[in-house]
UniProtKB/TrEMBL annotation:
Coiled coil: none annotated. Keywords: Oxidoreductase. Belongs to the short-chain dehydrogenases/reductases (SDR) family. This is SDR family oxidoreductase. It comes from the Bacteria. GO terms for molecular function: oxidoreductase activity, acting on the CH-OH group of donors, NAD or NADP as acceptor. The keyword Oxidoreductase applies. It holds the Pfam family adh_short.
Amino acid sequence: MQSIKDKVIVITGASSGIGASAARKLTQLGAKVVLAARREDQLKTLVTEIGENAMYVVTDVAKRTDLDNLIQQAIAKFGHVDVMWNNAGIMPISFFEEGHVDEWDKMIDINIKGVLYGINAVLPHMLQRGEGHILSTSSVGGLKTSPGIGVYSGTKFAVKAIMETLREEVAQTIKVTTIYPGATKSELGHDITSPKIKGLYGNLTNMPKLDEEAIANAVIYAISQPDNITVNEVVVRPLGQTR
């Protein structure tokens, strides 16, 4: 396995959950992390906890200029970017009949455009250097859909398509990895407003769920491969999850 020490890793959606857990583990392994999210108070707390090998940039991934600024700030601080992890995402799922169109728009902006803007911001830098690694978080919902998650699932299928095409285009120099988490103990889903979905999830509170650290370990596994090996897809489910 390749050492992660001194790698510069940019993480969106890093103020809590999977992103924050990974940031802690990566810096323990010697990486330098650039943390991006909208909630500055949580970013400040996390950077204070991690120490000098971390910095943060308040970032709304739905804004292309914010992603451009994020990469510029990372390069200004650490000189280059080795890894870009497009991890920000939201999951206000609902049934189509409920017509939560505003929430559909937000999922498209964050889950799809956020990934595209992240790729657009970092790819020229990596191509110029002749190396780099781009990861994006999809979901097992990006492999198989079910009632109530149609739009969310559609955004995560889009991430799969975007990343697979990117892999084919840059396979000679840039590593590309898509992470597909199963049910996870995280804040994702806290913004669900659908009473029907909340009722459904009320019956699933005892279902098996991954710790956030499990996804962090999957990302570390992908990042730490030798230069001549790329892990393109990682699916991580808790034991007992069937979908």
